[in-house]
Specification:
Elements (H helix, E strand, L loop, with lengths): L5 H4 L10 H4 L12 H8 L9 H5 L6 H9 L3 H9 L5 H7 L3 H5 L11 H15 L16 E5 L3 H12 L3 E5 L20 H13 L3 E3 L10 H7 L2 E4 L19 E3 H13 L15 E5 L3 H13 L3 E5 L25 H4 L3 E3 L2 E9 L2 E12 L5 E3 L5 E4 L2 E4 L10 H6 L23 E3 L2 H4 L4 H20 L7
Parallel strand pairs: 1-2, 1-4, 2-3, 4-14, 5-13, 6-7, 6-13, 7-8
Antiparallel strand pairs: 9-10, 10-11, 10-12
The protein binds flavin-adenine dinucleotide and iron/sulfur cluster.
Length: 477
């Protein structure tokens, strides 16, 4: 521990952000780097609490107190080694993780937690600047001769691929999109993670010997049989991208879309890639309604502002969560109102509102029929009698969750069964499916979740696959 009295003298400092008027004019990263002096002070707030609950709160088991101390002591090189020991892609989590570790930080019992995520990001940024992050291909002598396939190139697939490659297997990643990255590429907006950050990591993975085959929809080409016969082990990291829809009168009208269709198109436009989708979805000049209140909804909101929407309303059918935990939740992730930078940029948020239907002209939506909701004593959300009202709408984006992996040819061929939240079923609580040599990780296994979980599961599934291939494994669990 750097300074035993740090947490008594220094308060938490938020990460600086670009001015909101400036940032909605572009798609560049919202946050600014924290100056080194501030970082060192923030790291000194880590109080050597004895049992580091932050480390348990992080699904990767990141060695947080170690790197807080190392940053305080200016030992950045050791800090990145310690960080990479548990996290393949700290730049992804440093930018995007909601930081359950901070809710678990002992300081957060009666104070603000250590700025763990910001310190993580600074360590990896510094390491890239210094040229310390380089490709480490395995020794050719240590290649095992086994072939492993990873289906899906989101964070789970990328982590599984890197770990399997480190174990000496020859790894091929299949991706149905034209570019690698999963939701990091076609989902999460550039103002949360600019795509050169993803490209930089992919180049390193290629440099380590991993082969990427893009525009390859496994199940079609290659077929499921070809995949199984060509590879000794397969990790399915296909995500949980089947969007939940509404069944209301007027749903067939134009201008009502699943949020992911809009977000993927936006990321293509921002990258200067062709958008071949029909119809093209744009919020420019429109009255936009976003249904749903999570990450996907927030990403639609930020994009709609950057496109120049006339108005944006974000509607959630449940009640407004408390702004602060009203009961003692530490070290768990509290159920509170989450406010992201995009919410500061404009738009209106409403809670306890549900959709009853849509109306339109010439096949295009013009109005949404809404109703207020209330909670019954049993905790059910129901319509509140006599509270119906209409809202103007030119574009409606449905960001109301995901029902599990897309049921494409691959998934139906494999017939592995489904568990909770539509996720692919596994055997014995691990990552193996009932089909020997076939493993599953990330959102495909958990249902829609977080990047930190995807990386953690990619690592663990690789360990199980390595053990299956070799009879033993040295990969970390
Ligand atoms: C809009 C949005 C914003 C989010 N924001 C955040 C955030 O800020 N922070 C956070 O922690 N989490 C966020 N999440 C959640 C996070 O992105 C996911 O939990 C994470 O990406 C899951 O990783 P994955 O590798 O399991 O799947 P994905 O990232 O979904 O990748 C799956 C990949 O598999 C490919 N694929 C599927 N089937 C096949 C096939 N048959 N053949 C070949 N390829 C196939 C898909 O094309 C896709 O590229 C967000 C999610 C969404 C939808
Ligand atoms: S990955 Fe997420 S939970 Fe883990 S230390 Fe980083 S910010 Fe915290």
């Amino acid at each position: 521990m750097g300074d035993p009295r740090g947490f008594l003298k220094i308060g938490r400092k938020p990460t600086p952000k670009r001015d909101k008027v400036e940032r909605i004019q572009d798609y560049r990263y919202v946050y600014e780097p924290m100056p080194d002096g501030d970082l060192k002070e923030q790291a000194s707030r880590c109080m050597d609490c004895g049992v580091p609950f932050c480390n348990i709160g992080c699904p990767l088991g990141n060695l947080i107190p170690d790197w807080n101390d190392l940053v305080y002591k200016d030992k950045w090189r050791v800090a990145i080694d310690r960080l990479h020991a548990t996290n393949n892609f700290p730049e992804f989590t440093g930018m995007l993780c909601p930081a359950p570790c901070e809710s678990a930080c002992v300081l957060s019992i009666n104070d603000d937690p250590v700025t763990i995520k910001e310190i993580e990001l600074s360590i990896i940024n510094r390491a890239f600047e210094e040229g310390w992050v380089t490709a480490h291909p395995p020794d050719p002598e240590r290649r095992t001769g086994k072939r492993a396939a990873v289906v899906g190139s989101g964070p789970a697939g990328l982590a599984a691929a890197q770990q399997l490659n480190r174990a000496g297997h020859t790894v091929t990643v299949f991706e149905k999109d034209d570019k690698v990255g999963g939701l990091l590429r076609y989902g999460i907006p550039d103002y949360k993670i600019e795509k050169w950050v993803v490209d930089r990591r992919i180049a390193l993975l290629e440099g380590e010997g991993i082969e990427f085959r893009t525009s390859c929809h496994v199940g079609e080409d290659p077929t499921t049989e070809e995949l199984k016969s060509e590879f000794d082990a397969v990790v399915l990291a296909v995500g949980a991208l089947e969007g939940r829809d509404v069944e209301t009168p007027g749903r067939e009208l134009g201008g009502i879309h699943l949020a992911m269709d809009y977000l993927a198109q936006q990321n293509r436009r921002v990258a200067g890639l062709p958008v071949e989708a029909d119809p093209e979805i744009s919020a420019r000049g429109k009255n936009v309604i976003i249904l749903g209140g999570g990450d996907t909804s927030a990403d639609c909101l930020g994009n709609a502002h950057r496109e120049g929407a006339a108005s944006v309303q974000v509607l959630t059918h449940g009640p407004k969560p408390p702004e602060n935990p009203d009961h003692y939740t530490w070290p768990d992730w509290p159920f509170i109102l989450r406010t992201y930078p995009v919410h500061e940029e404009g738009g209106e948020r409403q809670w306890s509102v549900a959709v009853k239907g849509f109306e339109g002209e010439n096949g295009q939506v013009t109005k949404m029929n809404a109703v207020e909701t209330e909670r019954t004593p049993e905790g059910k959300t129901v319509y509140k009698e006599g509270t119906e009202f209409d809202m103007d709408a030119d574009l409606v984006l449905l960001a109301i969750g995901f029902t599990g992996p897309v049921h494409d040819r691959l998934i139906s061929d494999l017939d592995l069964g489904f568990g909770e939240r539509g996720a692919i079923a596994t055997a014995n609580g691990g990552f193996a499916t009932k089909d020997p040599g076939l493993f599953v990780a990330g959102d495909a296994k958990r249902g829609a979740s977080l990047i930190v979980w995807a990386i953690a599961e990619g690592r663990k599934s690789a360990r199980e696959a390595d053990e299956y291939l070799m009879g033993e494994t040295l990969l970390p669990g």
